[in-house]
């Protein structure tokens, strides 16, 4: 569903990714773990078009998308819930969710009616967002904003969803709720690529995992195998 081949990317003269290759199969949850500064968030930005790669290919459902604008890649079925949540604070919770559907629904005639079914699906997953639907997104708690970011990505009805550090800055009890949500997304058959600072939690929910180090994939395999790998244990799982 998502295939990345020998991807190179960076910022100006700073080279961050130096040959990243990975695959996310349809309906699978794949974790991308690594130390801070390893290139995980840069990878997500390059996959979704927020950052133009210098070299390599990104294939979404068999179609090359590298170099395309992020909006076009989103319309083709890749949704990105970015690090730091990035909700639109002055807008209501529901308006934030509706923005997630703009890439695939008509903007003028019947937009809200056609988006209604998707809203119901998100509200079933996150009942608290329904309670907060008229509340300004900027007044939500960190955990509620993370739910909103995931819900907004779901509103695009994506083929692949990228979740970048969904637990960042959250209290431990809220992190448990976030991973419960990720498990529900997995059960629903949604294709997920998860970047997460809590490697143990990421490996527990993933079907397959990649370990990134200094802009490259340093190890990969089934989570059960990586949890036994002495290099991975020493560096990331303690």
Key features?
single chain; 238 residues; alpha/beta; Rossmann fold; six-stranded mixed β-sheet; four-stranded antiparallel β-sheet; 10 strands
Question: Can you summarize this structure?
Answer:
With 238 residues, the protein is α/β, with parallel strands linked by helices. 38% of the residues lie in helices and 26% in strands. Helix 3 (93-99) runs parallel beside helix 6.
Could you give the topology of this structure?
Elements: E1 2-11, E2 14-24, E3 29-34, H1 40-48, E4 55-60, E5 63-64, H2 70-75, E6 78-81, H3 93-99, H4 111-125, H5 127-131, H6 142-154, E7 160-164, H7 172-187, E8 191-195, H8 199-205, E9 208-213, E10 216-221, H9 223-226, H10 230-237
Parallel strand pairs: 3-8, 3-9, 6-7, 7-8
Antiparallel strand pairs: 1-2, 1-4, 4-5, 9-10
Helix pairs in contact: 3-6
Provide mean pLDDT, rounded. 89
Rg: 17 Å
Strand content: 25-35%
Please mark out the parts with pLDDT under 50 across 5 or more consecutive residues, or reply none.
Answer: none
Instruction: Output the CATH homologous superfamily.
Output: P-loop containing nucleotide triphosphate hydrolases
Q: What is the H/E order?
A: EEEHEEHEHHHHEHEHEEHH
Global shape: globular
Q: How does CATH name the architecture? A: 3-Layer(aba) Sandwich
> What would you call the structural class?
alpha/beta
Number of helices: 10
In CATH, the topology is named Rossmann fold
| N- to C-terminal distance | 32 Å
What does this protein structure show overall?
With 238 residues, the chain is of the alpha/beta class. It has one domain (2-88, 158-237): Rossmann fold. The chain contains 10 helices and 10 strands. It has a 6-stranded mixed β-sheet, sandwiched between helices. Strands 2-1-4-5 form a 4-stranded antiparallel β-sheet, with helices on one face. Helix 3 packs parallel to helix 6 (142-154). The mean pLDDT is 89.
